[in-house]
Amino acid sequence: MNFESFIEYGESAVFVIMIIASILAIAVVVERAIVFIKNTKDSKLLLTEIVDTVRKGELSDAHKFTETYPENVYARFASFSAEHSKKGKESLGELMEGKAIGERVEFETRLSILNTLGNNAPFIGLLGTVFGVINAFYRLGTLGNTGADVVMRTISTALLATAVGLAVAIPVVMANNYFTRKLKIIQANLEILSREFLASVSRK
């Protein structure tokens, strides 16, 4: 493999990598969107019902929420907390903290892929541009002024690699930021429910 072939192979490899990265990013975004939607469906109404139930001291009734909302994260958390509410405030607090961490881990699954793609896609595109510029200068040195048209086309293709990298990175970063924000809201709501359960246990 000569030098020119190696550079052209590198350019092609970069575009292939970007296509694979795009497909992977779309798959992760769709999968995570489904998970977040299923786990937070009807959450506004459900949170109000859970808080009202806990403040009335009817902790045993918190189990009913998993029957109505079997896939909702707050229903699962309320059912778990109600199940362990008789173990004392300190023990319950530790258990709920562990449960909240477990839920966070589930939501964070595969988000690291989006974070990695968002951070590195521009650099992969830049690598393709570097390959293209090297190829353009190599052809300029080989063909001289007679190859100006070829050199210009090579440079335009090289710049396309950077554009593709940014086109992949921007929506991926936006999606990752959206899911991260949603996760922070979920964590905050779980913290609120934890405090409500602890306060109810203290009153008893």
UniProtKB/TrEMBL annotation:
<protein>
    <submittedName>
        <fullName>MotA/TolQ/ExbB proton channel family protein</fullName>
    </submittedName>
</protein>
<dbReference type="GO" id="GO:0005886">
    <property type="term" value="C:plasma membrane"/>
</dbReference>
<keyword id="KW-0653">Protein transport</keyword>
<dbReference type="GO" id="GO:0017038">
    <property type="term" value="P:protein import"/>
</dbReference>
<keyword id="KW-0812">Transmembrane</keyword>
<keyword id="KW-1133">Transmembrane helix</keyword>
<comment type="similarity">
    <text>Belongs to the exbB/tolQ family.</text>
</comment>
<keyword id="KW-0813">Transport</keyword>
<dbReference type="InterPro" id="IPR002898">
    <property type="entry name" value="MotA_ExbB_proton_chnl"/>
</dbReference>
<feature type="domain" description="MotA/TolQ/ExbB proton channel">
    <location>
        <begin position="84"/>
        <end position="191"/>
    </location>
</feature>
<keyword id="KW-0472">Membrane</keyword>
<feature type="transmembrane region" description="Helical">
    <location>
        <begin position="158"/>
        <end position="179"/>
    </location>
</feature>
<dbReference type="Pfam" id="PF01618">
    <property type="entry name" value="MotA_ExbB"/>
</dbReference>
<feature type="transmembrane region" description="Helical">
    <location>
        <begin position="120"/>
        <end position="138"/>
    </location>
</feature>
<feature type="transmembrane region" description="Helical">
    <location>
        <begin position="12"/>
        <end position="35"/>
    </location>
</feature>
<dbReference type="InterPro" id="IPR050790">
    <property type="entry name" value="ExbB/TolQ_transport"/>
</dbReference>
<keyword id="KW-1003">Cell membrane</keyword>
